[in-house]
Structure formats: structure tokens, C-alpha cells
Amino acid sequence: MARVMIVGAGGVGNVVVHKCAAREEFSHILLASRTIDKCHRIAESVSSPKVKIAELDADNVNDTVKLLKEFRPDILINVALPYQDLALMDACLEVGVHYLDTANYEPPDEAKFEYSWQWKYHERYKNAGITAILGCGFDPGVTGIFTAYALKHYFDEIHYLDIVDCNAGNHGQVFATNFNPEINIREITQPGKYYENGTWIEVPSLSIHRPISYPEIGIKESYLLYHEELESLVKHIPTIKRARFWMTFSQSYINHLQVLQNLGLTRIDPIDYEGTKIVPLKFLKALLPEPSSLAENYTGQTSIGCHIRGVKNGKERSYYIYNNCEHTQAYQEVNAQAISYTTGVPAVIGSLMVVNGLWKQPGVFNVEQYDPNPFMELLGPLGLPWHEVIDQPSPFEDN
Ligand code: NDP
């Protein structure tokens, strides 16, 4: 029986609390976040005696250390924002608590996505005998585990990896983001980047796009983005010659984003407004719907997967593995939309891997460094069934 502390009472936090409460492995759950009202609302909807709540500013390491010492969790699940990653890793290190997150650290004043800051904790975590699992949502997260699973079972060498992420849902809002607006807009407005033959190729934001067919959904225009799992996957699977990430956006979404960018509302540097410093993107976030509020009327589904090509026994082969998730099903089960659901469920499974002793090597690790099998066995039963398409023509064979 394990104790878990969950930091962040947003869309993803809600799913993680619901799912942890339903598992007998977790006997005590503490949800801690900046706004206590949001913790109350989640605890009320879960309605389990296992769930307690606390107010916490996770940027303050001393406050987190104090709470960790009081609650004594076995693992901390960080589903606050990427800005909190290092402060929470410091606190876990001080108290000796395992750590797991779903997004890599970003400095608030720079849209820079890389694992370097968190990888630097490896020796300290190893020496302390505790584990940190980085990027254990869906993408990053399941996409890395899908790739590790493909390598373990179907390939001697992986050469080409295309991660494809489609949200074909409709939330009825004119413009909204499916996870934290600030983090989401920072990700999409940065230059696109992909890996080819040992180098990173940077291209203007959303400048490369192509139609891609998604199961049960059909063809959707998909845009090349930089996504953080590309960095860890090409490091840990060095036979990869090319790795790219594609995400669907509607034309309306792109038009809105372009107008917001042209107006300067996506800027992350502070500007002076009548004597007060404000960051335009933070102001915009305050105007946009909370991701969790989209859940009730969301219809349609997401489809996220990996198209992989490489060789097995000297022969070329192709492999596609994916999950489709219905927004309405996620809402019926845990009052969430599918983006929060597909992020929260893998975070819970990753934590189960640690507390069950299956993924417990001390140090800082990305998910593809572990045995994918026990994780894959739990994905379907916990709500994210996956499907494989083996040796069929790949949509990426031409380029
Ligand atoms: P939300 O904005 O809905 O929730 C974030 C929560 O964190 C809010 O409750 C917020 O509190 C809280 N928080 C923010 N700052 C602090 C702080 N200093 N101390 C304590 N709590 C804080 O975001 P989501 O739930 O949509 O996303 C959560 C995380 O999941 C993000 O890091 C996101 O990048 C990641 N993600 C990962 C995905 C993946 O597949 N790997 C996909 C989608 C999201 P308050 O409301 O008071 O501001």
C-alpha cells in the first residue's frame, strides 16, 4: 500500500486523483495545489476517504519539503506546470521521495524545451536511492513507451519515427487550448524542429504540414512541431535516422493563433501597462477557458500513435501503434476531456510501476529506458486500449 502526493489541481490533476483513488495500491492520496478551491472541487467529485487536500505554492521548495515531511508519500506526481519541475525535484531529493512528471522543465522567461536541466539530477537521485521518471503523460510518455515496445518486439533497429497526434474533437468554443493555455501556446508558436542524420533541423513555426489519415477519423492536416520526446528518443535509441512529431490543428485555430501572435498577445516577455509589468501570454491565459471546463460538451475523439520503420532480421518493416480516446467517455468516467485523460492515466500507471517495484532503478530516467511490457499491460485496463498495424504501407514511405 503506497502513499501518493499529487501536485496540480487542473485538468490532468483531476484525472490522476480519480484514477489513483480507484487503485488499491494507493492507500492515502494528498492533492496539493495553489488554489485550494480547485482541490476541494476535485476531492468532492472523487468522494473517497483516501483523498486529502492542501494548499501549496510548489515554486517554494521549503513549503513542499514541509508538506512532504508531514504526509510522507512514497511518490510525488507533478501535474502542475513545467515551471515547477526543478523546485519539486529539489524537494523530493531533500526528503527522499520518488518523483514523476508529464512535461519537461521550461524556464518561465524563455520558451526552451530540453531535458538538460532535469537530466543533471541523475547522479544526485541515484546516490539518494530514489527514482525520477520524466515525461510520463501521453506525448511525451506513451509515445516513448510505444517506441520502446516496438523495438523490443518488432525491430532490431528503428530508423524512422513519426509521432502523430490528432484531436478530432469539438468543444464548441471559438478558441481554446486543451491543456494549460500558456504552456500550449508557447509550444506551438516556437519554431518547428526535427531530427535527421544526427542533426536538428529548425523550420519556421507551422511551416511544414501534410494530410495524414487517422484511424476512425480520416484525413486531417497535420503540422510538424518540435516535441520534447524527440530529444530523449534519439538519445536512447541511437539507430534512429529521422524523428518527427506531427499535430493536427483546424484552420480556424491557426487563424486565431496568427492574429494573437500578430497582436503580440503570445509574447512571454513582460511589457509595461500603465505602470504595471504584465506578460501578454499570461494575460491571454486569464481570458481563455480553463482546459478542464471544456470537458462537459466535448465530442469526438483523439488519436495518438507512432509510425515506425526499420529492420528486423535484415528485412525492412513498418509498424504503427496508436490509441484513440473518446472525449465523452472520459467525461462520463472522470469528468474530464480526452487530452487530460490521456495524460493523467499514463502518469498513474508510471507511478504504479514505481510503487510496485517494476521501474525502480535509482536515478533520473525517461520512460523508454524501462521495460515497456508491464506498462503496456495496464494501459488498456486503465482506459487507453492500443492497437497495432504491422507491415502495412506507411504514410511516410515517400518522405
Ligand atoms: P491546468 O492549467 O489545468 O492545471 C495546472 C494546475 O497546476 C493548476 O491547478 C494550477 O493552479 C497548478 N499550479 C500552477 N502553478 C502552481 C504552483 N506554483 N504551485 C502549485 N500549483 C500550481 O493544466 P493541465 O492540467 O492541462 O496540465 C498539467 C500539466 O500536464 C502541464 O505541465 C502540461 O504541460 C502537462 N501535459 C502533458 C501532456 C502529455 O501528454 N505529456 C499533455 C497535456 C498536458 P492554479 O489554477 O491555481 O493556477
TrEMBL record:
Listed SUPFAM superfamilies: NAD(P)-binding Rossmann-fold domains
Stored InterPro entries: NAD(P)-bd_dom_sf, Sacchrp_dh-like_C, Sacchrp_dh_NADP-bd
Superkingdom per UniProt: Bacteria
Domain Saccharopine dehydrogenase-like C-terminal intervals: 137-379
Coiled-coil blocks: none
Domain Saccharopine dehydrogenase NADP binding residue range list: 4-133
Pfam family name, one: Sacchrp_dh_NADP
Protein name listed in UniProt: Saccharopine dehydrogenase family protein
Lineage, opening ranks: Bacteria, Bacillati, Cyanobacteriota, Cyanophyceae, Nostocales
